[in-house]
Amino acid sequence: MTEKLLKDFADRGALIDYVRALSPEIADEPISQTEGGRQAGAARLAQLDAQAYGSTRNYLDGAVSYLSPYIRHGIVTLNETRNLAIQQGAPKQVEKFVQELAWRDFWQRIYHQSPAKIWRDIEPYKTGYPANHYATVLPDDIRQARTPSAAMNFFIKQLIDTGYLHNHARMYLAAYIVHWRHIAWQAGAQFFLTHLLDGDPASNNLSFQWVASTFANKPYFFNLENLQKFAGSVAPCAADDNADFDDSYDALAAGLFPHSEALNG
Amino acid sequence: MADLIWFHEDMLRATHPVFEHAGEDATAVFIWDDNYFDMAGYSLKRRVFLYETICHLPVDIYRGDTAKRIGQLAETALAQKIVTGSTPNPALQQIMQKLSATHELQQVDDEPFVTLEGPADLKRFFRYWNQARKTAFDINGAN
Ligand SMILES: Cc1cc2nc3c(=O)[nH]c(=O)nc-3n(C[C@H](O)[C@H](O)[C@H](O)COP(=O)(O)OP(=O)(O)OC[C@H]3O[C@@H](n4cnc5c(N)ncnc54)[C@H](O)[C@@H]3O)c2cc1C
Fold first, then answer.
1. A residues 211-250 near B, CB within 8 Å?
2. Is B90 within 8 Å of B36 (Cβ atoms)?
3. With 0-12 CB in 10 A as exposed, 13-18 as middle and 19+ as buried, what is B109?
4. Is A254 helix (H, G, I), strand (E, B) or coil?
5. Is A70:A42 a contact under the CB 8 Å cutoff?
6. What is the distance between the alpha carbons of residues A4 and A1, in angstroms, rounded to a whole number?
7. What pTM, to 2 d.p., does this model score?
8. Comparing C-alpha atoms, which of B142, B130, B137, B133 is closest to residue A86?
9. Closest Cβ opposite residue B114 in set A18, A74, A105
């Protein structure tokens, strides 16, 4: 019988070196500061502020929980997180947070129902383009954070270096990949799954499909004003460095979805 | 004849109900399966996060092909059954299928978030939420 792998290390650095040695082909990749383990997850849980969440969660510096990698791998459960949240306020005051937990439960149920379908379009795109319009390979400038947008480059770097992105940043970057760059959601989704510590085929792929419009009634897109409002305190959102997004929603829709009557009504 | 508890990446908690379904003398293991991680495209930071998590669990870690290693460990221990957490993950389901050809394999659900009255309506989130909200604000999702 093969030998057991080691479990006791002098410090985190030694553990990281050990995993590097187990994975020689990717040994030079970055490591996240986010620590694994129940203790680290419980520490995150102790910092939960489900009330503040409701009013600030859309801002990149809002009071979000950072629980996702722990919930993803069953280290912390949705149940115990909810049980804690409902002690922090009346249902109305913690509703937004509990509802976000329910999003995960919703995606997981779909995954349970049809596991093999997780990589397929659930519905057609509502962008005015057929599925085969979208490129299947993620371009290098996106992989390497060298796109024309400073904000997108910031998000890509953050994704690669930390393994975490705020929900709104995920929406911006996914929309950029699918709608501005015409890349199939699957290529963006695989890139996210490689790097997100919470990378989950259900939450990730189905959220990508929501952005793409293959699991929604219309595509999600944004403009510079929105980006500046919610991400401006964290990411470089100057107009000069993000020209692709600097327009009204109507003008952007006309450029991004010229064949969609519904979006250019 | 102790049971073998197989921990996989979707159930990395020492309080997972899997323990309630295995004998007291059961041994718990995680298989560090490079091929599985390669197929999933996991970056180094994801692997470190997982490894660090597993180090804190009462499990032994072995390296190799999951189905093969679990099968071998079950045989060596003369395990009566293999107990594991249920998961939608098709790669893990495939491994479970393989193992259940030769061993008794039990899948244990994790604790639920809500209790629904009827079948879930999964067409759009808000249809589901209208069902889920009835117990979503109750302790343990049950009223
Ligand atoms: C394109 C895209 C890809 C995504 N990929 C993933 C993924 O791979 N894994 C993942 O767990 N989430 C994913 N999400 C959902 C969401 O962005 C993250 O769960 C959330 O940002 C994690 O940060 P947090 O723990 O601080 O969340 P909080 O906002 O504090 O929420 C608490 C918990 O609720 C759950 N949750 C919250 N929002 C959602 C949501 N919209 N969908 C599903 N679960 C949610 C998570 O478990 C999260 O930890 C994705 C969203 C988008 C738009």
1. none
2. no
3. exposed
4. helix
5. no
6. 9
7. 0.98
8. B137
9. A105
A131 touches B: beta carbon within 8 Å = no
Q: Where in chain A is the domain with CATH 1.10.579.10?
A: 131-264
Beta bridge partners of residue B82, listed in sequence order: B4, B105
- Short-list A197, A181, A200, CA closest to A143: A181
Burial of A214 (0-12, 13-18, 19+ CB in 10 A): buried
User: Is some CB atom of chain B closer than 8 A to the CB atom of A55?
Assistant: no
* Architecture of the domain whose range is A12-113: Alpha Horseshoe (1.25)
Read off the pLDDT of residues B60-105 as tens digits, 9 standing for 90 and up.
999 999 999 999 999 998 888 999 999 999 999 999 999 999 999 9
- Collapsed DSSP state (helix, strand, coil) of residue B140: helix
Read off the pLDDT of residues A21-52 as tens digits, 9 standing for 90 and up. Answer: 999 999 999 999 999 999 999 999 999 999 99
CB atoms within 10 A of CB A55: 12
Q: From the CA of A71, how far away is ligand 1's center (Å)?
A: 10
Which domains, from first to last, does chain B contain? 4-111 (3.40.50.620), 114-143 (no CATH)
- Decide which of 3.30.420.270, 1.10.579.10, 1.10.3980.10, 3.40.630.40 is the CATH code for A131-264: 1.10.579.10
| Residues forming beta bridges with residue B6, ordered by sequence position | B29, B84
CB contact under 8 A, A37 and B46: no
B109-to-A74, A79, A177, B129 alpha-carbon distances in Å: 11, 13, 36, 21
Instruction: For a ligand 1 pocket test, name from A167, A172, A204 the mutation site with the most ligand atoms within 8 angstroms of its C-beta.
Output: A167
Confidence tier at A264 by pLDDT (50, 70, 90)? confident
Q: Give residues 41 to 70 of B whose Cβ lies within 8 Å of A.
A: 41-56, 60-64, 69
